Amino acid sequence: MTVRKRVIRQVMGQFHRPHGLGGRLAGWVMGHRSSNRQRNLWVVSLLGVKPTDRVLEIGFGPGIAIRELSRVATGGQIYGTDHSEVMVGIATKRNAGAVRSGQVHLQCGSVENLPKLDEPLDKILAVNSMGLWSDPPQRLKELRAMLRPGGQIAIASQPRCPGATSETSVRAAQEIEAVLTEAGFAQTRVQTMPLDPPVVCVIAVNNP
């Protein structure tokens, strides 16, 4: 492997599981990149979050969507889990006021280690993180069990593979739809955000 390829792999790895100084740099980039901010705010808008909703985000990164959720669900509770301690620190700083007030609860953990909640959730979202999950159908079944009847989940993806196109995004949406259906979700619908490549978001409902 060439030096250039090793460097590229190391840099890309920081976006998958940020750690150390490089992880803090990746977190800064994610928090300030325009497309990343647009993508996260857009996904939150698709869920129609209400003021009293209880919402969980899987893989919250620098906490952009968490901050928007806390702004909308002013009387609700926002939960988040991310497998990077660096991202937990950055997101906590970005949402310091809401964390102090007890509105936002952030933890370091994976989708296999979800927070134990005493009440059902109204909404769940994951932006560009499902590709890192082990056994997505099983994880989605577990997430569905945390949702109230009629609760919604949004799974978004902007393909990052080299040469990704609109066709790549279409295939990603089809794969997400299939896994959500396998996990027992219903009423799936696909929304597309015209970035390059397009962002796709599949919203589904937990029907009783």
What do these coordinates show?
With 208 residues, the protein is of the alpha/beta class. It is built from 8 helices and 7 strands. The chain has helices at residues 3-16, 20-32, 34-46, 64-72, 85-94, 96-101, 136-146, 166-182, and strands at 54-58, 77-82, 104-108, 121-127, 147-157, 186-193, 199-205. The chain has a 7-stranded mixed beta sheet, with helices on both faces. Strand 1 (54-58), helix 4 and strand 2 form a beta-alpha-beta unit. The longest helix is centred in the C-terminal third of the chain and has 17 residues, at 166-182. Mean pLDDT is 87; it is low at 3-21.
What is the number of E strands?
7
Spatial ordering of strands, largest sheet: 3-2-1-4-5-7-6
The computed structural class is alpha/beta
Number of helices: 8
The secondary-structure element order is HHHEHEHHEEHEHEE
* Share of helical residues: 40-55%
